[in-house]
Model the fold of this input.
Amino acid sequence: MSAKSLLQRLSEHRTVGAVPPQEIAWVAEHGVLRHFDSGSVLTSKDAQVEGLHIVLTGHLTIHVDGGTGRRKVMEWHGGDVTGLMPYSRLVAPPGNVIAEEPTEVVTVYRKDMPEMIRQCQQLTAILVHVMVDRARHFTSSYLHDEKLVSLGKLAAGLAHELNNPASAIVRSAGAISSSVTKADTASRALGSLGLTEECIAAVEKVRATCRTGVAPVLSPLEQQDREDAVCRWLGKHGLDLKTAEALAETNVTFEMMEQLAASMDREAFNASLRWIAADSVIHRLTSEIQEAASRISHLVAAIKGFTEMDRSSFPEPVDIRQGLANTLTVLRAKAKGKSVGMSIDAEEALPAVNGFGGELNQVWANLIDNALDAVQAGGRIELKANHERDVVVVRVIDNGPGIPAEIRDRIFDPFFTTKPVGEGTGLGLDIVRRLLQRHNAQIELDSIPGRTEFRVILPIAEAR
Done:
């Protein structure tokens, strides 16, 4: 194709055709017309972007797997431009740029871009606007992906956390029915013996101790040893061995049982122990249900606090201490899965900051989640928050391998990630940076092997 016909096609191009003729002529002289068959790769995600691509005909797309499945995030047709834009720091695209049909592009190669910026000022201005629009589109698309990934992690963690107390409720509620029947039978048997007031008072004293006392927390082996000891004591006194398990889970002592045995005959004592054991089981099961229900309520409150779903859309005072606690609750399941210890040390009278609680909780979630990915099994993560002059400083510290010096300047760049394909969008820290800018806050990083600290500095409400 002659230079004149290429010049004519560029003059009719929707994006670049409006610039002065001399600038179009410069592009026609320095650009290279290229043809791509359907399925061909214009730019690989593992290769450097060659330069500015002016699409004359055809259809180009870019697909990315950001953790929610492969999907198209952008496309270009005849009349569009793509590739490297003036002043852009783009090195490689986040996914392969593929021709969906036979496509023609004019490429101004990277080495000629500085000259194009000098010679083609109006074209450069147009391309800068295109670059801004493209960045906004990519950011919006990836923010959506990042929110879906975060929602998936939140749902998985919440399901895991809710499963244990919910299972405990089902298990304990199922056991109560038979326990109530046993208690009723034991109560009738005890009542038929016509015990004296003194004996009834002695039985009630032991029962009250089993109900209100705090039983020691024993290991499974220690608990089995205690049950064996109770069983031996019951056998020695010719009593019902079926009560051993229930009595072993209370804080009743052998001295207390000896005193009770001395106040009545064997039949009455046996009936008393059956009633005390049955009552203790019911009390334990109802306590387990209450504790599990309380745990579920606490989790729901933490999720509600984490998302700040009932808060205003306007900036308001935010309790950083509570937000950190809610975030830890949300991510506790993942920490347990890796046997990672997490602790929080927040100043008691921590001043509030002005902002959006849900967004700041997303910051803490991203930083803690990254730390969980970085540390090895058995590692440790520390959260610290304190007041320094007119700011609140939040530190997220882990004892992972650290961030190599050569990539520290890039970790906040959009799409940069060290995780395998499909396991991260590369926007987690970019979102952190953007959300903190919205709060007039700063983030700093210190990292050496064995200690990485992200430091978030937020102005307190009064200072703002």
Observations:
- The chain has twelve helices and 13 strands.
- The mean pLDDT is 82.
